[in-house]
Amino acid sequence: MLELQGATVRYGEGAPALDGLDLTAEAGSITAVVGGNGAGKTTLMRTLSGVLGHHRGRLVGGEVTFEGRSLAGVRAEAIVRRGIAHIPEGRRVFTDLTVEENLVAGAATRRGRSDGQISRIYDMFPVLAERRRQRAVLLSGGEQQMLAIGRGLMSEPILLLLDEPTLGLAPKIVAQIGEIVQHIREAGTSVLLVEQNAAMALAIADQGFVLGQGRVVLGGSAAALRATNEVQQMYLGGSAGDDEQRLDRHDGVLERWSA
Amino acid sequence: MKIVQLLFLGLSLGSIYALIALGFVVIYKGTKVINLAHGSLMLLGAYVVAVVSEHSNFGLGVAAGLVTAGLGAIVAERVVSLARTHDHLVPTILTIGLDVLLAAELSRRIGTEVFSMGDPWGDARVTLLGTVLPQARIAATIVGIAVIAAFFVVFRMTDFGTRMRASAEDAETAALMGISQRRVAMVSWAMGGAMACIAGIFLAAFPNAGLDHHSGIIALNAIPAIIIGGLDSSEGAVLGGLIVGITQSLVQGYADALHFLGGNAAPVAPYVVMLAVLMVRPSGIFGSKELARV
Ligand SMILES: Nc1ncnc2c1ncn2[C@@H]1O[C@H](COP(=O)(O)OP(=O)(O)OP(=O)(O)O)[C@@H](O)[C@H]1O
Ligand SMILES: [Mg+2]
Fold first, then answer.
1. What is the torsion angle, in degrees rounded to the nearest 10, for the CA atoms of residue A159, residue A163, residue A114 and residue A142?
2. C-alpha distances out from residue A85 to B176, B177, B202, B254, B285, Å
3. Is the pLDDT of residue B114 over 70?
């Protein structure tokens, strides 16, 4: 249902952030996208949701289609109407608004009243129901992430784009978010899940892609990816190592793959 | 009871300034542009009110003025947004260009004439709490408070207002929610223009002489008001407007006692208050801290 062919994106005059990216996501599945810092994961999301312009970015080559229609040059609002919801990196809840107002803001493309959908979100995230009148800035990081997901679901998307939903959260919350993502898929929404936490992402995904320097360096079923030596070493294996070390190793592997 | 009279006059003048300041702030929050053509938009609206009411009636004049100022503001927004840049300073500077154009055209049309607003209050006065007050200023207070209250109801209590506030806080994330930045921009400018038009009507009405080609300049009084209140705060705009109005009224009223300041302290006084506020709170009374760092 989602297909990118040779997608190339530039910010300003710099080197391309996506450099001929090929990727597909199937309806009814969870697709994981993993990769180190600066690999182009967020840029991929922005390309799909039509907000590259907010960062002086442009799709300069290739094709991006969703359900058979091109997304190139389509406005963000129109993309939401077509059924894609993008939950941005860093949660970005509206801090001046209450929890419930955040959900109302997420319902901008709905016709008529949104009460029914709001109560479905509250059923899914009871903690939000308890805090509906509180300003979002007062929520914890985990609660803000739930709110960001709930807000994104207000438009009842066909495809949900999740950018690093577990970033900076405690292991218990990470597990909870994994369950929520599976629940969302079971409820009929396909998910494109960007993560640095490859263990979590590949555990719940059907298929996955490893990104490096704006390209897919490895792709396949999540099970097959979990089994490859490279993914084992880079993301899942033994001593975790600090981020920098992980990044170095990643670059090393990357060269081999893209050669 | 001179002080009561001065305070009331200050309150009414302040509610007029509050309308102008609130328009500035709404436009700023919606599009991050400081609309320096606000005075000319106000003049445009009030001019249309005067011309149309002369040929028909005041009600029709007000309707025509509101529509013209609102549409004029939308056109202004479209023009300045033609500058395809992410630097908000560029559209702000473009508004100066628009202001010059619009002000020149309006002064050409108005010439040396002084227009009456054709309003129903005329130069009537009423006695209230033992002081004599112009009816037009009482109307200004009531209308000003009503419009400001309606504004806050819409912004705080409706889904539409919630989406405007969401976009003001984070335009990109709002776009991801399907909130159209273009529509937010149009609505904020139209509201700002319409509020300026209402303010313009009362600024030209009694006890002032009428509308002349200089009337747009009075909108500059809203600048200390928004700086005092905080550029990105609606509540601040209202409070700032009231502070400026009351300060001017008191300084004017006690001009004799304040003679040592020189003859014409009233127009300057709000700037003194502004400086005092800035020394204590660099981003205004209600302004967010981030703005001070920009
Ligand atoms: N707004 C921007 N302006 C200019 N360059 C950018 C911008 N955003 C990202 N880039 C560049 O594009 C490349 C890809 O960045 P992107 O944010 O997509 O990576 P990412 O995989 O999401 O990284 P992270 O895991 O750190 O979030 C990087 O080289 C980055 O420096
Ligand atoms: Mg990212």
1. 140
2. 7, 7, 47, 61, 38
3. yes
Low-confidence ranges of chain A (pLDDT < 70): 235-259
User: How is chain B split among helix, strand and coil, in percent rounded to 5?
Assistant: 70, 5, 25
Distance A164 CA to ligand 2 centre (A): 7
Residue A166: count of CB within 10 angstroms of its CB: 23
Q: What count of CB pairs under 8 Å joins A to B?
A: 72
Whether residue A150 has its Cβ less than 6 Å from ligand 1: no
- Which of A43, A54, A159 is the best mutation test for B, with the most CBs of B within 10 A? A54
Give me A258's structure tokens: 């893209």
The domain spans of chain B are 2-221
Chain B residues inside the 8 Å CB shell of A154: 177
Global ipTM = 0.88
Angle (CA) A76-A81-A84 rounded to 5° is 70
Q: Residue B166: which pLDDT band, with cuts at 50, 70 and 90?
A: very high
> At residue B206, what are phi and psi to the nearest 5 degrees?
-55, 145
pLDDT digits (tens, 9 = 90+) for B192-239: 999 999 999 999 998 888 899 888 888 888 899 999 999 899 999 999
For an interface test with A, which of B88, B177, B187 has the most A Cβ atoms less than 10 Å from its Cβ? B177
Regarding the beta carbon of A246 and ligand 1, being less than 6 Å apart is answered: no
CA distance B89 to B1: 48
Closest-CA residue in chain A for B170?
Answer: A94
Q: Are the beta carbons of A78 and A16 closer than 8 angstroms? A: no
Mean pLDDT across B20-35: 94
Band of the pLDDT at B289, cuts 50, 70, 90? low
Q: Answer yes or no: is the C-beta of A220 below 6 A from any ligand 1 atom.
A: no
Which residues are CB-neighbours of A236 under 8 A, at least 6 positions away?
Answer: A198, A199, A202, A226
